[in-house]
Known about the structure:
Blueprint: H1 2-14, E1 24-29, H2 32-49, E2 53-58, H3 60-69, E3 74-79, H4 84-92, E4 96-112, H5 113-118, E5 136-137, E6 140-147, H6 155-165, E7 172-175, H7 180-192, E8 198-203, H8 206-210, E9 213-215, H9 223-229, E10 245-252, H10 253-258, H11 260-268, H12 273-286, H13 290-300, H14 302-305, H15 311-320
Parallel strand pairs: 1-2, 6-7, 6-8
Antiparallel strand pairs: 3-10, 4-8, 4-9, 4-10, 5-6
Amino acid sequence: MAILGLAQSAQAADTPQCEVNRPINIGGMNWESNLILADIESYILQKGYGCKTDILPTETLPAIAALERGNLDVKPEVWLNSVRDPWEKAVQSGKVKKTGDIFTGGEAWFIPKYTAEKYPDLKTAADLVKYKDKFKDPEDPSKGRIYGCPAGWGCEVVTNNLHKAFNLEDSFNMYSPGTGAAQKAALTSAYKRKQDFVFYYWFPTPLVSSLELVQLEMPPYDEEKNRCLTSLNCENPQPAAYPENPVFTGINVEFANQAPKLAEFFSKVKLPLPVLDAAMARMEETGDDPRDIALWFLKNHADTWTQWVPEDVAQRVQSSL
């Protein structure tokens, strides 16, 4: 009986007690890197910290509002340059804050390499006005179509403002797909059929790395111009290239105060781009869902994620795999 009691005590000591007694709500924005990261974080919270978690489907701008209200505790990826105004307003409320730097991403307008070879004088976004007939909108053949940012995402503000800044409103429609999945499916289908198309996309992503693409040139990045381009109320947008895009974790301040150990974990989450590329490439190749890719990452890239957590947390996660 004494031995059994000691064993039960040891087991109880090894069972972590989550700092909050409710599920932790994580924003499940519907693009690959965010979905993978959300599942990685969820698994570590469950197995390493003894927490319950919910990954809640959402979109970029609603997620910031939900984070501010406390309906979300964590937003795994905040792409600052796409949501600068709403993010800064949320931070000013004192209810959300940035924690950690995950990676640096990028954004651009692309055409397929075969299109660039067909039209060698099409080098810049401003050149598009001369090529509207080469990119006809199937729903409005009098204009060309640019596949923009999925509806409701933060990047939609910038693509719409650049559409105006490059004086393309009379020659091109900016088409916003309903979801990220619909956007990817349309682009992949057009590429396989060797159709000419122009589109906005971000990287690192499996799609950009798996297709032969050419970026359309834009005037150099300008901080003042970019501030207007990222604003819903930009009255006179001026053309400028996308900047490098810092991507970090957004966290609810009240949650961070309630759970300082968990807040410290989120502050250390960082993904080297080669590791992230490998995870997304595997997702593209296998068709596995984000949960499966998260488990693959935890099993195969312990050198990365064990740097985010204390040793005892790492041991519990590893023993569960």
